[in-house]
Amino acid sequence: MSQTGLSKVLDIAELLQQLGDKRYHEFLRVPAMSAGIYVLPPGATDNQSPHKEDEIYYVVRGKSKMRLGREERSISQGDVIFVEKNLEHRFFDIAEELVLLVVFAPAESG
Question: For the whole model, what pTM was predicted?
Answer without folding.
Answer: 0.89
